[in-house]
Amino acid sequence: MITANDSGSASDLTITTAWNDDPDWSAVTFTETVAGDDAALQVNGIDITSSSNSVTNAIEGITLNLRAESGSATIRAERDADAIVAGIKDFIAKYNDVVSFIAGQSRYDSAKKIAGVLAGDFTCAMCRAS
Question: What angle do CA 31, 33, 37 make, to 5 degrees?
């Protein structure tokens, strides 16, 4: 038995031999039992084909795992508001950390008479604002 490494119609096998004219091998024949085929589906009326049953290019961010030869399915994707809020809060916290760090590096400590490495750097817009 010979099988292709990949799936789909683009992975069809072609077998050629150098011994077709040899009388000892004339009885050897090959039969294709299963032809390579692509998965075909429609998403919102748009025809899509895929060389495998795992379709990643139909809906951005979603993988469709096809498990039957025919039928229909309804997919419902919802926003995860809690994850969005957590991401925004995390971004704000990290932004504030950066602003505080830059402000600390642009200060002049008059008691210790020490300037931060960014003190007096007028190319730093955040430094001028602090």
Answer: 125
